[in-house]
Amino acid sequence: MTKSSTPRRGRRMLAGIAVAVVAASLFSPVMSPGTAASAAAAAPSAQHGPSVVPDRIVLTPADDLSTTQAVTWRTSRGVTSAKAEIRTATATPYPGGITTVNATKNSDVTTEHYDESFHTVEFTGLTPDTQYQYRVGDGTNFSEWQHFTTASASADPFSFIYLGDVQNGIKSDASRVIRNAFRDRPDASIVLQAGDLINDANDDSQWGEVFDAASYQFGTQNFLAAAGNHEYEGAELSTQWQAQFAYPDNGPTGTGHIEELLNGTVYYNDYQGVRFISLNSNITDAAVLAVQTEWLKETLESNPHKWTVVFFHHPVFSLDEGRNNRAIREAWLPLFEANNVDLVLQGHDHNYGRGNSNDAEKDNPTSWDPDLNYDGPVYAVSVVGSKMYSNTGPRLWIENDAHLKKLQGNVELYQLIDVSGDTMRYESRTADGVYFDGLTIVKNDAGKAVTDDTPPQEIDPSNPGPCLGCEPNPDPTDPTDPTEPGEPTGTVDYEVTGAIDSVNKSNAALPAGSAFSESKDRLYLGDQNRRTISEVNVDTDEVTRTITLPENIRDVGIDDEEELL
């Protein structure tokens, strides 16, 4: 919000100004309804409609960023000769030595309001550590010239920016966070985002706001994103995501359904001594998760570089005490710890949190400060947009042998990471540019040490909120447990009436928990794919109500008041 203040001298003029305004209105024609309507805010479809002039230009790593660079942009449907022009950067306004490269991929997307096309060019044969200028278009209609710099072939120092969920208040709130991040690190080489750029997967106006907020940055620095749950509509990945992000094709290999599900969201990129690994935490089906986990293991173990940064959406240790991402924690956490990953960067919980495993604080040199020093991965969660959660706490950390050292809600942040030789510096700042949190990782022949800037925050673990799926099943043999086993109260008859030959996995129900309300005599069944909860009359087997939620469902429960969680 911008505050308005009026100087003392100006206030003396207000009466005169008011008279002038009234007088002017007396001589103004009466506005017709049509004229009045034209003064209203333009509809999103009018604000973000495509044309033959390129927009939504974004750099992504197609391969080795020292010699290649991918760029994608949008036009209206019908542009058939998409191409880009490139040359080494020059100070002259009419450069020669231009190379023209035709688009290698053209994707048509139909939205609620219009048809649009996305075009991708891959520049190859580039020289490491060199600044280039480029523009995109169709031979007649071009974008402005923009610059990018290829990666060095060696582990030279560089910076990158880490952003959490954008999702809500994209242009109105998140844009200032993104711009302040670039104000503080104007030469950042990479922008890394942990999922949920938008709230509705295929809402083109929201994607338009993303580029309103960060178009210059996307066109000049490489953008690495992980897919969040809001990049999905049901089980389908956003068509905009697939069309506009040309990520490396180095994820799990194969031609089967699983590899197809993960394509474009699971990938890695090496940049000046750092391996960046993007994971997809949305698909927790056992078979899909097993394929992704095996790929992660191989990608971590084959890393030839000093540093490793992994990023994905759902935290292994949730800050929201009503969530429990058990499947990915059990699959990936042992690999992060065994391979001593440096940073694990996440989103989803719309708060800030940072910590480490308890093991990272054990068996360390006696000279280390136990409040500041440890060895092991740093786990962080952050948020950019205006949506915030309040039911936060350390429960998931404590119950899974981890130490939540920093927790803060209702704050928008960005993170700056500087990599230089044996040192990685991590710093979190609030939307207004104020320092909030920080640490330094040093890694050399003597080993690795993480040093926090400040001692851990005291976080009250009392009165935790409900955590669906967290609590272990009660022990029926424990005499103090009131739920002791009893005799069955009845039998159930069933009949097999048919068989299903095949299932469309993208539309199939994916169970997400169940709960029974004794007071209402109703059974509640969650479906993760459809984001629905079905209320079932257990006497008639009739579905009496279907509740559709805006987010994926992880579990279903009943609280002490017999209300649905």
CATH topology of the largest domain: Purple Acid Phosphatase, chain A, domain 2
Number of strands: 29
Domains (count): 3
CA(first)-CA(last) distance: 35 Å
Rg, rounded, reads 27 Å
CATH superfamily of the largest domain: Metallo-dependent phosphatases
- Mean of pLDDT: 85
CATH architecture descriptor text of the largest domain: 4-Layer Sandwich
What topology, given as strand order, has the largest sheet? 11-10-9-22-23-24-25-19
Reading off the top of the CATH hierarchy, the class of the largest domain is best stated as Alpha Beta
Instruction: Name the poorly predicted regions.
Output: 1-38, 463-488, 502-508
Number of helices: 11
The major beta sheet can be summarized as: 8 strands, mixed
Structural class: alpha+beta
Descriptive account of the structure:
There is one protein chain. With 565 residues, the protein is α+β, with helices and mostly antiparallel strands. The chain is 18% helix and 29% strand. The chain folds into 3 domains: 47-153, Purple acid phosphatase-like, N-terminal (Immunoglobulin-like, Sandwich); 154-452, Metallo-dependent phosphatases (Purple Acid Phosphatase, chain A, domain 2, 4-Layer Sandwich), CATH 3.60.21; 509-565, no CATH class. The chain has 11 helices and 29 strands. It is globular, with a radius of gyration of 27 Å. Residues 54-150 form the Purple acid phosphatase N-terminal domain. Residues 1-32 form the signal peptide. InterPro entries: Calcineurin-like_PHP, Metallo-depent_PP-like, PAPs-like, PAPs_N, Purple_acid_Pase-like_N, TAT_signal.
